[in-house]
Structures are given as C-alpha cells and as structure tokens.
Amino acid sequence: MHNVRVSDSGRVLVVDDEPIVREILARYLTRDGFLVDVAEDGEEALSAVERHRPDLILLDLMLPRIDGLEVFRRMRSADRPAVIMLTAKGEETDRIIGLELGADDYVAKPFSPREVVARVRAVLRRAGAGNGDRDARDTLVYDDLEIDARSREVRLHGEEVRLTPREFDLLFFLAANPEVVYGRIQLLEELWDFAYDGDPSTVTVHIRRLREKIEEDPSTPRRLVTVWGVGYRFQP
C-alpha cells in the first residue's frame, strides 16, 4: 500500500489484487488531478480507509484474505466514503448485494480507465455539498418528509434518515418532480450521467432501499409509487 501523488481534486483509494489494474487506474486518476492510494487486499483496504480517509473507494469485489463485500460491510455506514465497485461480468449477484449495501456505482471489467475516471468525478460531484445549483427549491417538504438540498439531509417525523449520495439524488429528483412518471432508463440517464450497459436493475435496487428508509410499509409504498410497465413516480 502506498501513496502515489498529491493533488487537491479529492482522494481515491484503489483496491484491486491485480497490479496492472492498480497501476493503470492510479495513473489515470493522478493525471486527472486526484490523490491516489492503492491496496492489494481487503486488510490493506480497511487499514487505508482508517489512515487516509479517502473521499471515494474503487473496490474490487474479488479480493484475497477479505473480499470486497466484507470490506464494505466492515466500514461504518456513517463514516463510509463513496464506493464504486469493480466487478467481473459474472458477478451480478455480488453487484446487486453491493448496491443494496449502499454502493454508489459499479464498473464491470474489462473497463475503460477514462470511463472509471468519469464515474469517479460524477459520484464525487453528487456526494459533495456543492449541489446548490439544483434550482431555487432548496428544501422540499411533504407532510412529515423534509428534503434539504443544501445540507443534503432528509428528515422523516423530525428524525434524520441516512441516505447514500445516490439515494439522496434519486429521492430529490423524484420529489422535485412530483407525479411525473420516469422510466428506469430515464433515471439512469438523469442521475447516473450515462446509461449503464443496459442494466436498469440498478434503479430498482435504489428504489427498494429508499422505500425501506422512508416508507411506513415498504411493501405498500405510498410515496415512491411503481407505475407498472412504465417506471416510478413520487406521490406527494
């Protein structure tokens, strides 16, 4: 584990057991202005998270000693940085589990290093508090649900609801456009910046996790409503 280079664009931890993958990602990220740390297994990754406090982790799921999903589980959710999973094409189940645990994004191997850098920038941009350019609707209030765009906080019955950056963006987008139905591909293009290799299940996972956090009965949602065969809408 070592530090590659100093910058002021943000700090990224690359966790992968393949040296060539670590080297290429570190090179492209450094070239784009990031401070980069690398780790080759799960134990090094957990140590690096405690030591360097990265803004984002590029986390391979297939790791020696401690696998990527276990690394993810061991990080405290309150202090967890943004996470982009690196997955092989055959790891769909692990990818879905990672998204359910709160991962912000995933990239399937083999990948383009430029695409990875673009996704890192997109995730960090959404995770930052500087999203005050959404528009004048800084706070949305629907009965006992309050969504504050400036602080990126959500409160239900006056209690804070902890959301990942991607969950917050999805909820805010739907709530800022109440009763408008959006298909899963539309939501991918709006909130993920570019469509995922034709895999809309990512949206389904995030909607399900949001329902578990803001709906009284997630099995019968009254706010995040499914319009069968079309998509989802926010019902005020």
Could you characterize what this model shows?
This protein has 236 residues and is α/β, with parallel strands linked by helices. The protein has 2 domains: 2-127, Rossmann fold, CATH 3.40.50.2300; 139-234, Winged helix-like DNA-binding domain superfamily/Winged helix DNA-binding domain (Arc Repressor Mutant, subunit A), CATH 1.10.10.10. Helix content is 38%, strand content 23%. The chain has 8 helices and 12 strands. The strands form 3 sheets. It has a 6-stranded mixed beta sheet, sandwiched between helices. Strand 2 (11-15), helix 1 and strand 3 (35-39) form a beta-alpha-beta unit. Helix 1 (19-31) crosses helix 5 (113-127), helix 2 (42-52) packs parallel to helix 3 and helix 6 (165-176) packs across helix 8 (201-214). The longest helix is centred in the middle third of the chain and has 15 residues, at 113-127. It is globular, with a radius of gyration of 18 Å. The N and C termini lie far apart (49 Å). Residues 1-8 and 129-136 have low confidence and may be disordered.
Please outline what is shown here:
With about 240 residues, the protein is an alpha/beta fold. It contains 8 helices and 12 strands.
Write the layout of secondary structure elements.
Layout: E1 2-5, E2 11-15, H1 19-31, E3 35-39, H2 42-52, E4 56-60, H3 68-74, E5 82-88, H4 92-101, E6 105-109, H5 113-127, E7 139-142, E8 145-148, E9 153-156, E10 159-161, H6 165-176, H7 184-191, H8 201-214, E11 224-227, E12 231-234
Parallel strand pairs: 2-3, 2-4, 4-5, 5-6
Antiparallel strand pairs: 1-3, 7-8, 8-9, 9-10, 11-12
Helix pairs in contact: 1-5, 2-3, 6-8, 7-8
